[in-house]
UniProtKB/TrEMBL annotation:
SUPFAM superfamilies in the cross-refs: Terpenoid synthases
The protein's name in its UniProt record: Octaprenyl-diphosphate synthase
EC number per UniProt: 2.5.1.90
Organism: Candidatus Nitrosocosmicus franklandianus
Any one GO BP annotation for this protein: isoprenoid biosynthetic process
Keyword Endoplasmic reticulum: no
CDD domains the UniProt entry points to: Trans_IPPS_HT
Molecular function terms from GO: all-trans-octaprenyl-diphosphate synthase activity; metal ion binding
């Protein structure tokens, strides 16, 4: 099991424990395929902990379209959804390994960051290995649409990271540039998760687009909200943005309204999807970002 590192019993973890356990089981199965590898133990370490927000969104998006729980689906369909959920989480994990190196973060989820435990060289190689696993999972789905969305997300995440590096170095940033960074670096994977969930559920074009927009808008809101909570690191992009403002408190209020606006826009995208099943209501609840606490 991947939950060897104790989860904090937050309301979020307790509420979605059934989903998280199944996502973890699927992730474990994927990693066990590489028990022969030098990367096996580092992989297990890298994937421990976390709320599994992105794969959870994929699962809920699929259930929203199918109007039933994944556990009640044909086993082959359910296995496919959970397998791609693992790919989404692995793509997030790969980005976390890189981010912690770039940001010089030494702690991740209450434990030594990956590069602190295994070193920089092993971290780079492990992230590359993870990308190979993602490609393998994608190939098994035999769905070019899923492969395309995973690829797009990976490219956008890298673009966002590169843009952030340039902006931090220049110590000058506009609010538009900040949004552009998080739209690529963070929101692209939220978008991919929701969109792929709709694709795997054979949603129509309108449903797929609505859920893709929902994921993107929620991802932007999520990152702004997260940055507001923890903006004391002087090297972070949001902190630079705050320092440029003559009145910090007023600017923080403006950014709080900004993330609330994005959250509301995300919620409105869900209204484009007919019906009001349990999974859709949960996605609506998630637009209240305090639910992630």
């Amino acid at each position: 099991m991947l939950n060897e590192r104790d989860y904090q019993l937050t309301p979020f973890i307790e509420r979605f424990n059934e989903y998280i356990e199944k996502i973890n089981d699927s992730l474990s199965k994927e990693i066990e395929c590489y028990s022969w590898s030098e990367f096996y133990l580092p992989l297990k370490y890298a994937c421990q902990g976390g709320k599994r927000i992105r794969p959870l969104i994929l699962n809920l998006a699929a259930e929203t379209i199918l109007d039933k729980s994944i556990s009640s689906m044909n086993s082959k369909v359910a296995d496919n959804i959970f397998s791609v959920s693992s790919a989404i989480e692995l793509l997030h994990t790969e980005s976390v390994i890189h981010d912690d190196i770039i940001d010089s973060d030494n702690i991740r989820r209450g434990q030594p960051a990956f590069h602190i435990k295994y070193g920089h060289n092993a971290s780079i190689l492990t992230a590359d290995f993870i990308l190979g696993i993602i490609l393998n999972i994608s190939a098994k789905t035999n769905n070019s649409h899923v492969t395309r969305e995973l690829s797009k997300a990976s490219i956008k995440m890298s673009e966002g990271e590169m843009l952030e590096l340039r902006l931090v170095k220049n110590h000058k940033i506009s609010q538009k540039q900040y949004i552009n960074v998080i739209e690529n670096k963070t929101a692209s994977l939220f978008e991919a998760a929701a969109k792929i969930g709709a694709i795997l559920a054979n949603g129509n074009e309108d449903q797929i687009n609505a859920l893709a927009n929902f994921g993107r808008l929620l991802g932007i809101a999520y990152q702004i909200h997260d940055d507001i909570i923890d903006y004391n690191n002087e090297e972070r992009l949001f902190n630079i943005l705050v320092k440029q403002s003559e009145q910090n408190n007023i600017f923080i209020d403006i950014m709080e309204n900004t993330y609330l606006n994005y959250s509301e826009l995300a919620r409105k995208e869900l209204e484009r999807i007919e019906g009001n099943n349990r999974s859709k209501r949960i996605l609506q609840d998630l637009t209240n970002l305090s639910s992630f606490s």
